[in-house]
User: Fold this.
Amino acid sequence: MIQLHNATKLYGTVIGVNDISLELEPGAYGLLGPNGSGKTTLLNLITGQLSPTMGTVHLFDARVSHDQQVLGQVGLCPAMDLLPIAVDGIEWVKYMTQLYGFSAVEAAERAHAALDLVGLDDARHRAIAGYSRGMKQRVKLAQAIAHEPQLLILDEPFSGLDPVARHDMTIFLREWISRGKSVLMASHILHEVEAVASHYLLIYGGRLLANGTTDEIFGMLEDYPREIEIVCDDAARLALLVQQQSVVDSFQFREDGQGLTIITRKTLEVYQQLPGWLEDQQVVIREMTSSDESLQALLEILMKIHRGEI
Amino acid sequence: MKPQYWRAVFTHEWRNSLAARRFFSWCFLIGFPVLIVGLLRYTQRDNPDPMEFLAWGAIVFVLIPGICCMLSLLLTAAPFLQAELEGRSWIYLSVRPGARDALLLGKYLYSVSRTVLMATITLVICMAIGGFLGEFRYLLAILVLILLGSLAYGAIYIFIGILIPRRAMVVAVIYSGLEFLLSLFPALINRLTVQFRLRSLLIGWMDWENSPDLDFFASSGLFSEVPAWQHVVILLTMTVVLLFLAGLLLNRREYIAIRDE
Assistant:
């Protein structure tokens, strides 16, 4: 479906995307990375809005820069918010659908069907200028799916949505995928992508750091030390217990003195054995988190591996 | 490119153009030549020696196929790409196959048709005010000049809009001023201007070549007596070449508003 071979995009001397090679078969993919990591540049390369400075990008076996017709199989829901334009939602979606080559009548039918699908009811006949963020997001989604593309590309689709709209978006995307369609979704929030995609592309500093399923990516990190934060009422007693354990590589006291940060290569064993260590020791654990589960921490570890620092 | 692509853009632009918020631009573009002509007529009301048709015709020519058409095209053709970039609609358009060409052609035809319609209305009102509505030959000549001028200036402004989208209006205004001055330059360079071709066509079609009032124009080479078809071919060739180049640029250059990179 998508093939990139050593794709690099430079903005003058700034690198937007750095030597990315990947091959994606049809499916649901999450493109994860913090703001400014190169996600949008990568999507722009895939959709042909940017040409790679070096390397090649193929979409459905065609180079977008050479064969724009291939874009008919793609729907893009960009991150940029719609400006408060004066046209009705239905008129705008119809206009966008006409630009895929449909007649005015067919485009209107498709626009209505797409707006039904994303759940924008009577509001479709009102000017977009008066829409809420969630309604605009629905209109943006409708224009991307009205022509029934094979691949739906979404850039930060949950941005600015309230919990109800987020839930609706998740349900919509799951249904879309269940119909055998493909999705490539960029986000900087891991759990949003987790709810939809099973396969991840992790990008940071313009580089593709990892590519695989959740298990594959976390499996890559198995042999690298990770941190577990424990907040408790007696940090000194906990430290005495922890230092005797072979599964703990090292530990340090938290700055607030309210617990420990444990560094281990065997997080699962620590989680399993911790209740046993605390048995009859009168230490009350108030909170336990693994900061490494966050996307930022995951990316930082991957960057360190990439640079050979660990 | 299928016709429905550019027709979609053309229809969309016309629908927006007829919205109430655009009413002011229609009123202004029709109103200011009418106002000038009206004032001129008012000052002539008690004049025992009324203005000759040639003088009146020259004023209407400068006002309508000249200033009125140029202004209308300046407002619609020159900023056509920048409007999409600023309005954040470019990102939606550019991922549709053939939409770039559709945008170029649809917006160009919209600009030209809007200008022609506006200029025709203005022309009829101005001629009625002047009491020259019966001058069919002149009316027909000016109507053709409006069409030719709109086609040529539309292509020039569209080309500028694609070449320098962020400063398109400024560059187009500077170009228009320079073009007007160059067209009055008594040298060969004036032949490169649209104004020179339009002026020559009007003078030829109205048989004003030998008018004593235009002696200075004739001696300074400010119009040409070559056959009219040559001027028409030059104007149309220029239009086609500029639109072709504009299409090439639009399809090859990267226009993108990058938000979070």
About this structure: The interface with chain B takes residues 11, 16, 35-36, 38-41, 44, 47-51, 68-72, 74, 76, 78-83, 85-87, 91, 95-96, 98-104, 107, 143, 156 of chain A (CB under 8 Å).
